[in-house]
Amino acid sequence: MFTPKKKQSELDRKTPKREPKKTVRKEVKKDKPKEQRRKPYDLKYLGGWLMSKMAFGGAARLRSNADKVNKLNVFPVPDGDTGDNVRMTIESGLAALESLDTDNLAEVMRAFSHGMLLGARGNSGVILSQLFDGIAKGFEGADQADPETLGRALEMGVQQAYTSVMTPTEGTILTVAREAVEYAVKSITPQSTIRSFFADLVGEMHESLERTPETLAVLKEAGVVDSGGAGLLYIMEGFNQVLNGEDIPEEDAPATEPAPKKQIDVTSFGPDSVMEYGYCTELMIQLMRDRCDPENFDVGPLKEFLATVGDSIVCFKTGTIVKLHVHTFTPEKVFEYCRAFGEFVAVKVENMSVQHTETTVEEPREEPPAEKKQYGVVAVVNGPGVDELYRQLGADETIFGGQTQNPSTNDFLDAFRRINAEHIFVFPNNGNILMAAQQAANFYEDAAVHVIPSKDVGTGYVALSSADFSGSDPDGIVEQMKDAMQNVASGFVSTAVRSVEMNGVRLKKGDAIGIIDKKIVLADPDKGCAAYRLGVKLLDKYGKSMLTVIAGKDTTEEEKEILRQCIEENCPGAEIYFIDGGQEIYPYIFVAE
Q1: Interior CA angle at 235 toward 233 and 240, to 5°?
Q2: Closest by alpha carbon to 505, among 537, 550, 543, 458?
Q3: Do 581 and 550 contact (CB within 8 A), yes or no?
Q4: φ, ψ for residue 377 (rounded to 5)?
Q5: pLDDT number for residue 18
Q6: 263-272: per-residue pLDDT in tens?
Q7: DSSP reduced 3-state for 584
Q8: How many percent of the chain have pLDDT more than 70?
Q9: Measured on CA atoms in the order 133, 56, 401, 505, is the torsion positive or negative?
Q10: Cα–Cα distances in Å, from 210 out to 219, 227, 236, 237, 588?
Q11: In CATH, what number is assigned to the domain containing residue 333?
Q12: 348 sits in which H/E element
């Protein structure tokens, strides 16, 4: 775990600055490409090939250390996910590079940053995607970059990252990026190379990260450094290792739980079966410049063709990527037609006559309604009970997410497309999902998207319950929901994963802890006692009379009844309602009104 400077640091390896050039051994064959003969890459110019290799190296370095970043959680509860969010964000950028075959730096960075924008998860992931999008803009029109051009591009990236946050907070990933770039740019001399630039950048980034607890008090209290900044440092260390000609081993990367796979019932389709339903065919196509104009590609003719070979059509373009879904008896015709425009990034074909089973519930595919309606609702939910609750309240689309499962920008965009409404109201229901929802809202052009700043499922529940969608003024509906959230106090019960003292409360690992307004207010060895004390505190301190308790997946009926009795005894007259939310991490979520 990262710790402030006064404690032992796990990032004790400082990146050396301005190392002398290594001489090339005489036994290297002259017929090898110049770039292969020169390791480390002490180059005056950065090209697309090398940038792509550095991107893969940065992702590998982060992937091996994502769990360390996850544990840099200010609150000592098991919901740390920054490492995973940043990892999945950069890996979305790598996916965009897979089909790219160019040494043009601008093209590589454009594809890389666009993939990151769509795959951005969590606030740190969104900021990272904005940082690289700004860098890509700084490289626009450049086949390659010298240290000065590289420095200017990074400065543009930092500026865009700051402007992407409504209220930038120092002591975070923003500070780490800014201070490192400022130092590296100031250190440029006529003798500078790409390698010396990154040595300066990473060296100062390490120092800046270690200073974050002195800038942000909550980090110092928790005894950690900023997790987003740590993720960025690991990425840049990977960049630097590639430039130094070092291998980046991944054998120490923590094992991850494989995603549940669909089980195919092969007995449901035999040699005498009749093909009744055709194939569910989904493609992701990278438009290629030698076959079409990717930026101005019109999906209209493609939709018209799909209508001649199938139905249940969904087809749209994001940047230079086209995604399509069609039910057809002849998927090979779809492949042949689409190859005229580009190459496949992803392909999925399933026989719809074959039965599939899986260990998790898959969201049903709903085609957009034929006619646009006035209002639609998208909500992020984190349990089957919460999902049912929001759908009963009128949510058209729900996205499963929350802590440790943050949805991406593209997840929101897909939900928006399925609704087909003039105005879409979005409930992120988590402060760490808010920026991804806002980024998707900025990208989406087929509707006016209104992001309701709901920080948890409780406040979102109250806001959606208060909405009157019969009116014709969407801005008025937004204000109505925001006003309703002002009168809500939310609380959470979770489990401490480390011993620490925060906000005057001494915690022991394994204690149940109560959280109100981003502050730990109590700790108790017993989960039931912690929940009871937190419920009473919410009703008494905030002068509320109604308490909705959203129970987690492992909470028993007996535990709920005991909790009800204890709160009613201490708060006579209070109305208490229970909802079986089924959420993880938080066995109890309280909503006091």
Answers
A1: 90
A2: 537
A3: yes
A4: -130, 130
A5: 40
A6: 555 566 678 7
A7: coil
A8: 85
A9: negative
A10: 11, 11, 15, 15, 35
A11: 3.30.70
A12: strand 342-351
Quick one: tokens of 243? 């430039």
Pairing of strands 588-592, 546-551: antiparallel
Residue 451 is part of a domain; what is its CATH number? 3.40.50.510
- Which range marks the domain in which residue 569 is found? 489-592
Query: What tokens does 114 get?
Result: 């666009």
| Residues 485, 431: Cα–Cα separation, whole Å | 14
For 159-171, b/e burial (b = at least 16 CB within 10 A) is bbbbebbeeeeeb
pLDDT of residue 46: 95
Token couple for 273: 């079966």
- The structure tokens listed for 570 are 């201490």
Chain centre distance of CA 523 = 30
Question: Is the Cβ–Cβ distance between 152 and 208 less than 8 Å?
Answer: no
Distances (CA, A) of 310 to 175, 302, 472: 52, 12, 37
Sheet holding 588-592, edge to edge: 519-524, 512-516, 489-495, 588-592, 546-551, 575-580
Query: Which whole number is the average pLDDT over 21-28?
Result: 36
Supply φ then ψ for residue 137, to 5 degrees. Answer: -65, -35
Assess whether 72 and 149 both reside in one domain: yes
What single-letter DSSP state applies at residue 311?
E
Q: Provide the H-helix boundaries in 376-471.
A: 384-392, 409-419, 434-443, 457-466
Number of residues that this document lists for the chain: 593
CB 340 within 8 A of CB 289: no
- Single-letter amino acid code for the residue at 445: E
Cα–Cα distance for residue pair 137/160, rounded to 1 Å: 10
Buried b (16+ CB within 10 A) or exposed e, 268-277: eeeeeeeeee
- For 518: left if phi > 0, alpha if psi spans -120 to 50, otherwise beta; the answer is left
Give the pLDDT of residue 258.
38
The residue out of 287, 318, 352 marking a domain boundary is 352
Q: Which residue is it, tokens 């079409």?
A: 292
User: Does the pTM of the predicted model rise above 0.85?
Assistant: no
CATH code of the domain in which 92 resides: 1.25.40.340
**Structure token pair of residue 144:** 């390659």
Among positive and negative, which fits the CA dihedral 561, 564, 568, 573? negative
Chosen domain end from 451, 485, 519: 485
Domains: count for the chain:
4
Two tokens, residue 67: 């769990």
Tokens matching residue 492: 């959470």
Secondary structure class of 317 (helix, strand, coil): strand
